[in-house]
Amino acid sequence: MALKTTPEAPLPVGEVSRLIGGWIDRLGAVWVEGQITQLSRRPGAGVVFLTLRDPSYDISVSVTCFRQVFDEVADIVGEGARVLVLAKPEWYAPRGQLSLRATEIRPVGVGELLARLEQLKKSLAAEGLFAAARKKPLPFLPQLIGLVCGRASAAERDVLENARHRWPAVRFEVRNVPVQGVHAVPQVVRAIEELDAIEDVDVIIVARGGGSVEDLLPFSDEQLVRTVAGCRTPVVSAIGHEPDSPLLDLVADLRASTPTDAAKKVVPDVGEELERVRMLQGRARRCVHALIEREERGLAHALARPAMEDPHRMLDERADHVASLVGRSRCTVGHLLDRADSELTHTRARVVALSPAATLKRGYAVLQRSDGHVVRDPGEVSEGEALRARVADGEFTVKVGE
What are the E-state strand segments in 170-319? Predict the structure, then answer.
């Protein structure tokens, strides 16, 4: 619809509505799935009015059909039912309103819903949204718990009463929302996002009582599953009873079989914890006592050894041994000294006997020339030469004769 318009030559509203209607009239019929939120069947009227809503998004569209089209499914279709509608888009120009003219309505059966859920489950699992590696651990003792549940519901009462019975100091941030119907998904998603944005919230519980497959469908919605997968806060799923298993159970960080079970898994029991503390104290006390007793036995055993009973005994034994060694060493050294003295005496006597002085004492003399040279041969001196004669007690001068 490429039109040339200017501020000076605008199109009238009626012309714009007519052009939109012409474009919509060229559209063919389509199959549409949704949930009936409003149903108007006026007595005697030949047209039935419905409002079809997307359960995952806040989007609705009006649907009209002839009475005979709706009468074929009137016994099994009502407000809240999921249906498939074959309809052609229509434009009501006087009000500028878009609607769908239905020519066939089919209820969506439970089997078909389960098949679609299984297909969605495989698709999300392939993305890794259900992987155990991405699941976050729950805190041991949450200070503030976020709770998403129906207003004044049994699920809310079960969670609050059981949690406070187990740990009276626990606090809750509650968001009451519709837990079934066309408004459930967007409001549950909004509540989870609000609680996830609160820094003090340690864990979020999404709780609902049991119900039919159709009642629990909002908790298998793709938008809700992706919202929970993106939460920074651990999320606990407590939907329905034990056999119920919406997709929220798979993406949540922890699955509880019932709201009561969720309270027991999230909040520790103060009595059990005190008993566990007492048990640990008893074990610690017994371990310490056993350690002390073992060390005392080891100490007594050590003190009973001879070395510890008479510490000086070892020193005395060593002292006697040392004294014996000292005596032996003294005897050995004495013998060595005596032998050395005897050898020295004999050597001294031999040296004295062989010394020149001893020879001189026996009457011998040594003749030396003036230069100190000892005379050994008469031919070495000449007649009248003065020589020095050394005897035992001194020296004197002699002259050489003929």
Answer: 171-176, 203-208, 235-239, 254-255
Contacts with 83 (C-beta within 8 Å, 6 or more apart), sequence order: 33, 34, 35, 36, 52, 73, 77, 105, 106, 107, 108
The answer to whether 27 touches 80, Cβ cutoff 8 Å, is: no
pLDDT reading at 1 higher than 60? no
As a whole number of Å, the CA-based R_g of the chain is: 61
Is the CB of residue 219 less than 8 Å from the CB of residue 246? yes
Whole-Å CA distances, 205 to 119, 259, 320, 375: 26, 9, 86, 137
Dump strand ranges (E) for 256-325.
none
Q: Are 238 and 206 in contact (CB under 8 A)?
A: yes
Phi, psi of 34 (to 5 degrees): -170, -175
Amino acid 370: pLDDT: 79
Average model confidence (pLDDT) across the chain: 86
E strand spans, 338-385: 366-368
Residue 332's pLDDT band (cuts 50, 70, 90): very high
**Cα gap 348→357, rounded to integer Å:** 14
Sign of torsion over alpha carbons 28, 29, 35, 38: positive
| Coil, helix or strand at residue 99 | strand
